[in-house]
Design goal:
Blueprint lengths: L2 E4 L5 H11 L5 E5 L6 H11 L14 E5 L5 E6 L7 H5 L2 H5 L4 E5 L13 E7 L5 E6 L7
Parallel strand pairs: 2-5, 2-6, 4-5
Antiparallel strand pairs: 1-7, 3-4, 6-7
Helix pairs in contact: 1-2
Length: 145
Amino acid sequence: MIAIEIPHINSIENAARQLQKDIGDYRRIAFAGEMGAGKTTIIKALCKQLGVESIVVSPTFALINEYFTKEGDSIYHFDLFRIEDVSEMYDFGYEDYFYSDAYCLIEWPEKALELIPEDTLFLNIRVESDGSRTIVSENPASISQ
């Protein structure tokens, strides 16, 4: 069970460092949470921990961005928010990414749950009443559209 508290935006680097440890051997990590919860922000910080030196931005319109680590390994960042039908995933060949050895960081996984491999780590970023955030591992069945 993963449970990482982020009391303030200044704590994001520490949270990403802990998350990198906690994800272990997972290569596909799905990030759920309400709009503005911080999915892209935690992905940016995690990419930095994984060795990405380039600018990490949400692929809201492109659906997927590729980043490279210092070692030249690929990290794929998906934003499925604009997916209206899962068939759109076939258009960009999602299988080539999801079934590679590269990290796949997926925002809005609930838009294509049936296509996301079973061995994906599902995380929910909860916005607490005081504005802090908590990242918790979830069962994919609890992620809904």
